[in-house]
Amino acid sequence: TLYPNISKMSYAVSIEMNGTKVDTIPTFMMSWKNRQSKDNDKQTLRVWLKQRLELDTVRIVEY
């Protein structure tokens, strides 16, 4: 597997509004097997997702 430290992963598009502006943000919800190495894995995964999906913004939420 590409990221063996991930135990669960979900995807959704979040919609945020701040009065006049509406923004959609690709959001990935992750559950990690090893919480000690999650920070490095999280950053590496963020870079990979942005490149692979050709996005400028990606949110990763831990659960």
Compile the SSE list and pairings:
Elements: E1 6-17, E2 22-32, H1 38-52, E3 59-62
Parallel strand pairs: 2-3
Antiparallel strand pairs: 1-2
Question: Can you walk me through this structure?
Answer:
The protein is α+β, with helices and mostly antiparallel strands and 63 residues long. It has one domain (6-62): GMP Synthetase, Chain A, domain 3 (2-Layer Sandwich). It contains one helix and three strands. Strand 1 and strand 2 form a beta hairpin. The longest helix is centred in the last third of the chain and has 15 residues, at 38-52. The radius of gyration is 13 Å and the shape is elongated.
Properties at a glance:
about 60 residues; alpha+beta; GMP Synthetase, Chain A, domain 3; 3-stranded mixed β-sheet; 1 helix; 3 strands; about 25% helix; about 45% strand
